[in-house]
Amino acid sequence: xxxxxxxxxxxxxxxxxxxxxxxxxxxxxxxxxxxxxxxxxxxxxxxxxxxxxxxxxxxxxxxxxxxxxxxxxxxxxxxxxxxxxxxxxxxxxxxxxxxxxxxxxxxxxxxxxxxxxxxxxxxxxxxxxxxxxxxxxxxxxxxxxxxxxxxxxxxxxxxxxxxxxxxxxxxxxxxxxxxxxxxxxxxxxxxxxxxxxxxxxxxxxxxxxxxxxxxxxxxxxxxxxxxxxxxxxxxxxxxxxxxxxxxxxxxxxxxxxxxxxxxxxxxxxxxxxxxxxxxxxxxxxxxxxxxxxxxxxxxxxxxxxxxxxxxxxxxxxxxxxxxxxxxxxxxxxxxxxxxxxxxxxxxxxxxxxxxxxxxxxxxxxxxxxxxxxxxxxxxxxxxxxxxxxxxxxxxxxxxxxxxxxxxxxxxxxxxxxxxxxxxxxxxxxxxxxxxxxxxxxxxxxxxxxxxxxxxxxxxxxxxxxxxx
Length: 468
Fold this sequence. Notes:
Largest sheet: none
Number of strands: 0
Low-confidence stretches: none
Strand content: under 5%
Shape: globular
Number of domains: 2
Order of helices and strands: HHHHHHHHHHHHHHHHHHHHHHH
Structural class: mainly alpha
Distance between the termini: 40 Å
């Protein structure tokens, strides 16, 4: 046994403990959590078929990590990946805990209890990968020294997370490009706080996802596309914004025979109604791909017509602001019992786990998120106050440049997620709560690391003396 063996065992046990804590919501539920989309993801992996409205990547991930044996291994794999990232953050931002692995796990456990992050890590959904990708980008771009193995691991997680959902590709692209622009303007590159090559390599990996994902889809017979249903989703968003009412009132009268003209006085109020309601114009006129070319043409006409720009900007800004406040838990976690898509696909992949699935708290309708949501909203408000106090006052001088940079990067990630999901899809709690928790987590780390120094300064200014 070498001298490093005990250290390896401690690191291994620390990671396992963290992963189990990150899937504690699933353990409490009695089965990994599912949503209405879970069945589609599982089916895409089981049958190796590219869905119309989402990537095949997460379906393949569930097949590989489940070992086609148990769905518990899927969320455990998610817990391992997320746990590895969070432990890195603790060691980088709160180095006073570097030699206390038990305290590291307890600190992450406190963050999970305060934010409810486990409720996303425990889902058979790719949502947790949005947060993973943003966290990986934070470590890659904050300017800290990383070993080549760590850097490769972070780049791999970034690419994997980007491939899990088309919205992740756009979100991560916004993060790296906006960070690059900000770093150039503020002189971060010139000061050597972040090397240009670090940013360039990270950006290249993110942008590579725009080629890798359609290549994977093409390999599985789905065509070289990011998502075949993108035009329908964008059309739904334009309908919800009221822009299509304006467009159709102008163009249907001109004699154009768009399929939507027949419904111009009866369009749904929101994108969800347009996409999923059995009586929506989309469904009544043939489904997802029946009018792809028409939708593409209309979207192009809207995006190239300056008369619509004020409406597009206004809608995007207000949707982003609304999305930033939607951080509640429980969205979509309703019972999915017999004759539902999740039930059928769990039966296909792990039929012997159906009893666990059916007796879970979720499928008995016994989950209550009221206390968690009260705690979550309070935690987020406190986190905003803490981060503002640290960054916008003289206390900023206590922070390392890396600590400041990571707050900026993660903030860009949270806001970019709100822009993409709110502006292009829907304003939903699930879509923002999946990433918003990273800010309270980082705020907690900064309090642990810099809190004692802040208290000493406060005591000294009060003339009481210093704390030893």
